[in-house]
Write a structure and sequence with these properties.
Elements lengths: L1 E7 L7 H12 L3 E7 L5 H10 L4 E4 L4 H7 L2 E2 L1 H6 L4 E5 L2 E5 L2 H12 L8 E5 L3 H12 L4 E6 L2 H11 L5 E5 L10 E4 L3 H4 L15 E4 L7 H9 L3 E3 L2 H16 L6 H9 L1
Parallel strand pairs: 1-2, 1-3, 4-6, 7-8, 7-10, 8-9, 10-11, 11-12
Antiparallel strand pairs: 3-5, 5-6
Helix pairs in contact: 1-10, 5-6, 5-10
Bound molecules: 2'-monophosphoadenosine-5'-diphosphate (ATR).
């Protein structure tokens, strides 16, 4: 049986084993998919052991996405642009790294939530690893403009200049968020998962905008509540998690599993 795993620290909370088990069931395939807790400074060793013992592929979550990128022998262009990988695959020429997070976000927004990206004015808040992983796929969907706003303005500017060749993107401070209507506001800061407050100017989330938190469940509740109070529609990142998993499954196994039933089941649970 083909063996897969998710590496993280912590990892016990990860929904990935459950998602991939359901994908396999729905596809009539048999796979093994485990959660592996790697020590904070021991990702490379743990991942190498996994692949040396016949592991076929892995997903990688916090805090190891940059380590996963570094470990690989070859990398996709989107992983290179993100400087981070959430996906590893044992190929004949060594371990290959990819990043399926951005594709997962774009699929959730467009296919599941009906949020059109083409021509949209998009604000992404945060300029850390989570933001970096999704900027190229967002720009590939042809928004009118993408504004990256960050507490530390210099990081937002740097990130914007790195991606400018791919589309219209600017970097600003949180206070410097322009007074214009954004169709879509994405929270890519670590404030939700860390339970910290995010201070955003009130004009950032317009009435009838769409607000999206890349975190899911209780962690995202505060941001979503605020967005709804401002009259926006809002969604957490559970769909992104399921879609990046489907993209991973398809890359490993050559057939894409259906996501809708899995997302419905997870929401119900
Ligand atoms: P991740 O991998 O989750 O993106 P990260 O790379 O540490 O984690 O990045 C965290 C992001 O959340 C950064 O954009 C950070 O802003 P700074 O660059 O100014 O540090 C942002 N962030 C973290 N705590 C925040 C807070 N309390 N308010 C606003 N932004 C915050």
């Amino acid at each position: 049986m083909d063996r897969y795993a998710v590496f993280g620290n912590p990892v016990a909370h990860s929904l990935s084993p459950r998602i991939h088990a359901r994908f396999a069931e729905l596809m009539g395939e048999r796979i093994e998919y485990a959660a592996i807790l790697a020590p904070p400074d021991g990702f490379a060793r743990s991942a190498r052991e996994f692949f040396a013992s016949g592991g076929r592929g892995a997903n990688v979550t916090l805090p190891f996405k940059v380590d996963a990128y570094a470990l690989a022998a070859t990398r996709s262009e989107r992983a290179t642009l993100a400087g981070a990988a959430n996906f590893l695959y044992a190929r004949h020429d060594g371990v290959f790294a990819d990043n399926t997070d951005g594709a997962g976000l774009v699929a959730d927004l467009q296919a599941n939530l009906g949020v059109a990206l083409r021509g949209a004015n998009v604000l992404i808040v945060g300029a850390g690893g989570a933001a970096r992983g999704v900027i190229a796929p967002l720009l590939a969907a042809s928004p009118m403009r993408l504004v990256i706003a960050n507490r530390t303005e210099a990081t937002a500017r740097e990130l914007a200049s790195r991606f400018r060749a791919l589309g219209p993107v600017d970097g600003v401070s949180l206070e410097g968020i322009p007074r214009e209507r954004f169709d879509l506001v994405i929270n890519a800061t670590s404030t939700s998962t860390r339970g910290e407050p995010l201070s955003l100017p009130s004009h950032a989330i317009a009435r009838d905008a769409f607000a999206y938190d890349m975190a899911y469940g209780a962690a995202a509740a505060g941001f979503l509540e605020r967005a709804r109070a401002a009259g926006a529609r809002a969604a957490d990142g559970l769909g992104m998690l399921v879609e990046q998993a489907a993209e991973s499954y398809a890359l490993w196994r050559g057939r894409r599993p259906p996501t809708a039933p899995v997302l419905t089941e997870l929401r119900a649970a």
